[in-house]
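Example record

Each entry pairs one chain with its bound ligand, SN-glycerol-3-phosphate.
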Amino acid sequence: MQLFLDSANLSEIREAASWGVLGGVTTNPTLVAREGGDFPRLLAEICRLVHGPVSAEVMGTEAAEMVREARELASVGSQVVIKVPMTSEGLKSVIQLQALGIRSNVTLVFSFNQALLAARAGADYISPFIGRLDDQGADGAALVAEICGFFRSAGLESRIIAASIRNPLHVVQVARAGAHVATVPFAVLRQMFVHPLTDLGIARFQADWNRVPEKKKN
Ligand code: G3P
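Structure tokens for the complex follow.
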């Protein structure tokens, strides 16, 4: 399972990229609005920091409008993947984007049937939202398992990005469920480093090393 960063913040992206763990970046309108400024310019800067795919969302509600926005965003670079909402117009735009050689990510997916429709339309990526389902008392990771299990047995090629990840356990759950990608907020990515036994181990090694006489260390 690849790890993407769910962020539009350049310092977060730069830092996560320096850890060598980043397979790509996803953004959404909320994350972009938080950063302010010109979106195509921000997108270009994100693409300079990351080697993998960078998802950028269109805001139109009609397919023609989505495709027009998508062409502008995709002109930033070949890494750009266009996020379209899980609507009939969104799926119409997926087909048109495919004809233009632009990859798509169907977002705001909350059910198996939505994922199946997106796959049949030819979406490159499909993003089920785990945390928002859990917020409703549903089981987000179970949905990812159901989608991934069926897609593998049916030979459907769309890649599943588990999105709306809220904690490190979600990452484990969606990995077990067979997600191709987990897109993770920066805070969760940082939490993934943490284990008290690692901290304790480092402290013990430091203390033991400090007891070695200076001459022996060299
Ligand atoms: O980028 C889409 C998704 O990851 C949003 O997450 O936490 O706003 O539900 P959240």
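The pocket of SN-glycerol-3-phosphate is lined by residues 6, 26, 28, 129, 131-132, 163-164, 183 (CB under 6 Å).
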